[in-house]
Amino acid sequence: MSTDDQFTLVSAEQRPDLIPAFAELAAPVWPAFIDGDRAIIECWDRLFDAGLSRFQFVVLRTGPRGAEQVVASSNSIPFAWAQPEDDASLSDDGWDAVLSAGVEAFVAGRPVNALSALSIVVAPELRGSDLAERLLRNMKARATKDGLQALVAPVRPTRKPSYPLTSFADYLGWTTDSGAPFDPWVRKHWQLGARIVKVAPRSMTVAAPLSQWTDWTGLRFPVSGRFHLPGGLAPLVVDCSAGTGLYEEPNVWMQHPLEP
Ligand SMILES: CC(C)(COP(=O)(O)OP(=O)(O)OC[C@H]1O[C@@H](n2cnc3c(N)ncnc32)[C@H](O)[C@@H]1OP(=O)(O)O)[C@@H](O)C(=O)NCCC(=O)NCCS
Predict the structure, then answer these.
(1) What atom in ligand 1 is closest to the CA of residue 131?
(2) Cα(191) to centroid of ligand 1, in Å?
């Protein structure tokens, strides 16, 4: 457990009573349709099993009379990276693939050699503080402490939904006047030393009946085609004859340097 001014960083292993707070913090942040992601459905809850729970952290703020409030969270998972010397070998299926691979390795008791970031959430009132940075540094420290060789992240660029007409690749190429990545969340990783490795074109996949998509988005889909989703990084591809919609979200793999 580490304490810094009013904030304390604790793992879900240290405080299993706080496990429900991960979902409570995340619920208002992600578009509802992300709950339909196949890896989330199949694997997410395993992150809190003994053995993986020490990679899940929350930041606690202690108020007057000792009242605790969870104000930020981070999730990561160790996985077996077959070819760490070839970073292009990171999966095109990004986030889904690494979560599934990490859980499979954990269940089978197979050795792991790398850590992947999965999520960081900071409560809206504390954005712009250094909590996100602290959580990223903590992931690096965790990876080093566990003797892992690498820290990678299938990064979800936070501002991409505001630019739906721009391709993901073009958006990633945008820079600020000083030459830094334009997207603030990609930039934060970059400022901490991470470099862009490659795009993961199908990082998060959600396939569901159109009625389910209507429940998630409030949109109706009278014809087949591509539809922009609020909060989406890619269009929803609707097939009315099959009655289904497929969302394939690109993310970008980044790799952080680890101190020896
Ligand atoms: C992504 C998230 C964790 C970042 O937390 P944060 O506290 O805003 O992080 P930082 O303060 O370090 O900000 C990161 C950068 O974004 C910039 N930023 C923050 N809010 C911004 C906004 N509304 N518009 C543009 N830039 C913004 C900051 O200026 C900073 O850039 P800089 O360091 O070059 O100045 C937080 O926004 C969040 O919880 N978002 C919802 C969940 C999410 O999308 N997580 C990321 C995918 S896992």
Answers:
(1) 7
(2) 12
